[in-house]
Amino acid sequence: MFTKTKNNWLFYSQNRLCILCGLHPASATQVCNACLDDLPWIVNACLCCANPLTTGKQSQVICPTCQKKRPPFTQVIAPFEYRFPIDQLIQLAKFNGQAHYLNPLAELLSEHLRDKPLPELIIPVPLHRKRLQERQYNQAALLAKRVAHNLGIPFSNRLLIKETNTRHQAELDRQARSKNLRNSFHCTSSPPASVAVVDDVMTTGTTAAEISKVLKAAGCQQVYIWIIARTPKELHLF
User: Fold this and answer.
1) Angle 38-42-48 (CA atoms, 0-180°, nearest 5)?
2) What pLDDT does residue 1 have?
3) So what CATH class is 41-235?
4) Torsions phi, psi of 163, nearest 5?
């Protein structure tokens, strides 16, 4: 294992430069060590929803919002805040057709998940077929498939489908987001006991909550939400 990892590192360091600075040799994540240190890592977050907390030291806490009303998902795991340069990479991959940026993002997420509880199945947040035709690919599916491969977990792109072509969530406030997604997702078969749902960004958590309800209604017991970045609460729409 060590020899394989070392050889992979040598391959990347000799043949690729960091995708962020373009100056230093990249690691297997395609980011150099200096840029890795500068990424907007979440140091302290709610153990349930992963909302970044402002306390100066690490603490094992659940935020007041989740204490008041526990979300239907088991836990959200996110390595980064949705800030520069992670936000730029996600936007380029999602809206500008530069899907190659999903590979380093998936590698970063995979590394972050190495010591976390692993589910029986990984699925992406699905796109409606019309939205998929417009974008040509589902960025969540590409992320999920690579993470599943890295962690050795089965992947499914068919367990969960989106039946309704809803409005873009970014256009709506929190209350409208929930109404917009209601009854839009459907489970095509019985899910396993534990599932991880992969997406790029989580803002209010409305999508994660709706999907978790659908999966649990179909028999799933533990629903983990794995995302690249979490939008800090002060940037949410209300």
Assistant:
1) 165
2) 43
3) alpha beta
4) -90, -25
Q: What's the confidence (pLDDT) of residue 78?
A: 97
- Low-confidence stretches of the chain (pLDDT < 50) are 1-13, 235-238
> Contact at 8 Å (CB) between 67 and 48?
no
The pTM (predicted TM-score) of the whole model is 0.87
User: Percent of the chain having pLDDT more than 70?
Assistant: 83
- The pair of structure tokens assigned to 173 is 């406030």
Q: Assign 3-state DSSP to the chain and report helix, strand, coil percentages, each to 5.
A: 40, 15, 45
With helix as H, strand as E and coil as C, how does 109-157 read?
Answer: HHHHCCCCCCCCEEEECCCCHHHHHHHCCCHHHHHHHHHHHHHCCCECC
Domain limits, the chain: 1-38, 41-235
Residue 224's DSSP bridge partners are 75, 196
CA nearest neighbour of 223 among 238, 209, 205, 237 = 209
Total Cβ atoms within 10 A of residue 77: 18
Predicted pLDDT of residue 11: 45
Q: Which helix (H) or strand (E) is 104 found in, with range?
A: helix 102-112
Distance in angstroms (rounded) separating the CA atoms of residues 236 and 108: 24
Dihedral-angle region of residue 152 (phi above 0 means left; psi in -120 to 50 means alpha; beta otherwise): left
